[in-house]
């Protein structure tokens, strides 16, 4: 038993769970947020993402386990567990969770569960019949063999010494034959899912293969600049000062409003004071709104570092892992970028950060899982010589490749050719449409433009005058208070002296 491989399995499993939870947190709608909301759906989302990434990481593990005397891990059992789990997710659990989530929330819990189970039974019957009937008729394969034969002349002696020149290849013959074999049901499930997934893989992966690098490049060139520490401190100090000023101005306006209710004012004076108060209140409200908008922009600029992740190098020995994960990343990018579209009408279950409901999450996880099976097949065939002793190479490279009906698609490279064509078309599409600023930078620019449109220079001047008058008034009040305190102390001191003098006079 290779304990280092066991250690890698545990570490990568924990990392996959963390990354899956992070993706769920980014895209999940706030109404579905929290640990207790739609917990079953969230468990399926995390499990589905782990299965998608995990099966790709099993391929290099399978190769490492097959080298030398072997790592002692039963990879056939491990692959069976992974793909039976994927089959259960796609055929039963994810559809049932979608049906339950989309049921009427006003109905009782038992009624919702029974309704979702009934819908799932209909889906499972259709899915199961398609799989079983196709397996009955397509469960065989023809493995090609090339046979070489050599004819020898009749020997007259029982003992003969053969030299190298005594051999000739002229009489050597070769022929091609096929050996028919039966596909195990486990392998057929993998091939069936890979075949279905290829139709989504060539679309999402082809678009993502072009969109991902171009989007990363344009995000780098148009990346927003983060605030430095000194700039952030200066802006915070300015915000603090402005907040104190607006609080004092608000207290002054409250006092003005109270003065309007006091009796003894003439009609004309009361009307004039009320007009001045409403005008000052309007300026004050705009100043508060402007300060709040500037604060929101400042928060976006502080969090802009999230858009520029730290650059990290990758190990050359992990190239296979990197390529596998990169292809699945391209699939996810294509899925999140274009989704399942009805041309010129709408996108079905789009993935939008902070706005994705759980039924949309489950629908897209369903597509990503089935695409991940195709990615595993694609990578295993691309590195077939490197993975020739692994369990996966036997399953994908022999059993699935030569299955009846499927062999025409796999032997003639139908899906790789379609993948390249869509990648080229996607490259042209993304090249002319994708070079734009990042979403965070666009939001900051839009907020600044709206803020500039709302800002009235006349109100800014009047606000400064109001703040200046209020500051002068506060200073005068402080001076008067200080003067009163000083006079009070002097009078008190004078009274004390008078009392002392009177006491002395009485004593005399």
From TrEMBL:
Positions in coiled-coil regions: 281-308
Q: Which UniProt keywords apply?
A: Coiled coil, Membrane, Transmembrane, Transmembrane helix
Endpoints of the signal sequence:
none
- Localization (cell): Membrane
Predominant place of localization:
membrane
- Ranges for the region named Disordered are 472-508
Pfam families reported in the protein's UniProt record? LMBR1
- Can you supply one Gene Ontology CC term for this chain's record? membrane
Transmembrane regions listed in the UniProt entry? 6-27, 39-61, 81-101, 113-138, 188-217, 309-329, 361-380, 416-435
Q: According to Swiss-Prot or TrEMBL, what is its membrane topology? A: Multi-pass membrane protein
Stretches with biased composition (Basic and acidic residues): 472-489, 499-508
Q: Which InterPro entries match?
A: LMBR1-like_membr_prot
Protein's UniProt name: LMBR1-like membrane protein
Tell me what organism the protein belongs to. Answer: Pseudocohnilembus persalinus (Ciliate)
């Amino acid at each position: 038993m290779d304990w280092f491989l066991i250690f890698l399995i545990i570490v990568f499993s924990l990392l996959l769970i963390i990354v899956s939870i992070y993706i769920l947190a980014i895209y999940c709608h706030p109404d579905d947020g929290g640990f207790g909301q739609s917990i079953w759906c969230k468990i399926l989302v995390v499990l589905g993402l782990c299965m998608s990434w995990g099966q790709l990481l099993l391929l290099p593990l399978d190769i490492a386990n097959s080298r030398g005397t072997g790592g002692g891990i039963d990879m056939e059992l491990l692959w069976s567990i992974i793909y039976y789990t994927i089959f259960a997710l796609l055929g039963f659990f994810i559809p049932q969770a979608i049906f339950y989530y989309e049921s009427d929330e006003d109905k009782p819990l038992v009624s919702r569960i029974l309704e979702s189970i009934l819908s799932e039974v209909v889906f499972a019957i259709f899915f199961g019949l398609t799989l079983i009937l196709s397996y009955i008729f397509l469960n065989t394969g023809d493995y090609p063999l090339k046979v070489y034969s050599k004819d020898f002349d009749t020997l007259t002696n029982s003992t003969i010494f053969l030299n190298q020149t005594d051999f000739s290849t002229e009489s050597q013959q070769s022929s091609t034959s096929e050996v028919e074999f039966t596909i195990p049901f486990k392998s057929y499930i993998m091939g069936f899912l890979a075949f279905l997934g290829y139709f989504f893989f060539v679309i999402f992966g082809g678009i993502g293969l072009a969109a991902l690098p171009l989007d990363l490049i344009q995000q780098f060139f148009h990346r927003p600049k983060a605030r430095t520490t000194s700039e952030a401190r200066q802006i915070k100090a300015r915000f603090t000062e402005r907040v104190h000023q607006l609080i004092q101005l608000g207290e002054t306006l409250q006092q003005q409003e109270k003065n309007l209710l006091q009796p003894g004012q003439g009609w004309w004076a009361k009307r004039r004071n009320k007009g001045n108060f409403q005008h000052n209140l309007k300026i004050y409200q705009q100043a508060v709104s402007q300060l709040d908008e500037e604060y929101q922009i400042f928060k976006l600029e502080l969090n802009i570092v999230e858009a520029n992740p730290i650059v990290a190098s990758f190990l050359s020995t992990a190239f296979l892992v990197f390529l596998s994960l990169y292809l699945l990343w391209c699939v996810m990018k294509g899925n999140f970028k274009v989704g399942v579209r009805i041309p010129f009408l709408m996108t079905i279950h789009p993935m939008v950060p902070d706005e994705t409901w759980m039924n949309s999450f489950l629908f897209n996880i369903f597509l990503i899982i089935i695409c991940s099976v195709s990615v595993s097949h694609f990578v295993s065939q691309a590195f077939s010589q490197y993975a020739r002793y692994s369990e996966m190479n036997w399953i994908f490279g022999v059993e699935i490749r030569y299955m009846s009906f499927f062999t025409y698609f796999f032997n003639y490279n139908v899906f790789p050719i379609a993948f390249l064509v869509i990648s080229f078309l996607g490259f042209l599409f993304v090249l002319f449409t994708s070079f734009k600023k990042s979403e965070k930078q666009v939001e900051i620019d839009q907020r600044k433009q709206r803020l500039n449109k709302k800002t009235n220079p006349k109100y800014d001047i009047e606000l400064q005058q109001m703040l200046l008058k209020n500051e002068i008034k506060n200073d005068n009040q402080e001076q008067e208070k200080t003067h009163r305190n000083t006079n009070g102390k002097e009078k008190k001191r004078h009274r004390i002296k008078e009392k002392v003098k009177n006491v002395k006079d009485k004593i005399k």
